[in-house]
Write a structure and sequence with these properties.
tRNA adenosine deaminase-associated protein; tRNA_Adeno_NH3ase_assoc_put; 6 helices
Length: about 180
């Protein structure tokens, strides 16, 4: 596995009093169960917890933990699992490839989006995991893959866009400023 990969991990949780965000330390995590435990510990009473792991301005992993469901994982590119220990750990149980980015060749903008020329999706990216993990929160699989595939969009930009849509953009922005 590759060398050092710089990461930023943000836990975003929705509880009875709204959204909270906190940075999560993943160094030394032994397996995915330990990462999930750390995510739970960040906001123990959360109805929904999301973990955004941004690595080397290139990869984004999103973990979702609900009160009733198992952990769900999506990654913008399977190469992250080959390039870092943390990537291998987070993607260890991911078997399903997401939709091919080629299928997004002609994305149709949503009704509330302006029609504009958008850069093509990165043909080398190989998204994997549960592409539907944010669908019930207003981010369709198509939108998630489009965000991850847009040329020039960094993982931090994708995370910010998702958090704005979810209503926790300010909490994430405050966390980044600390």
């Amino acid at each position: 596995m590759g060398g050092f990969v710089s990461t930023f991990a943000a836990a975003v949780a929705r509880g009875k009093n709204g959204w909270t965000a906190s940075e999560l330390e993943l160094t030394g995590a032994a397996d995915l169960d330990e990462v999930v435990d750390r995510l739970r510990d960040a906001e123990p009473d959360a109805e929904l917890s999301l973990l955004f792991v941004e690595a080397d301005d290139q990869y984004l992993v999103i973990l979702r933990l609900d009160e009733v469901e198992d952990v769900r994982v999506f990654c913008s590119d399977s190469a992250y699992g080959d390039e870092s220990r943390l990537g291998a750990l987070l993607l260890a149980d991911v078997e399903t490839p997401a939709l091919e980015l080629d299928e997004l060749a002609a994305p149709r903008p949503a009704a509330d989006e302006e029609e504009e020329d958008r850069p093509a999706a990165d043909p080398d990216a190989d998204p994997v995991g549960d592409v539907e993990l944010l669908a019930d929160l207003g981010i369709s699989s198509h939108r998630l893959l489009t965000l991850c595939g847009l040329e020039g969009m960094l993982p931090a930009d994708v995370t910010a866009e998702i958090c704005q849509t979810l209503g926790c953009g300010d909490e994430l922005e405050e966390l980044r400023e600390v």
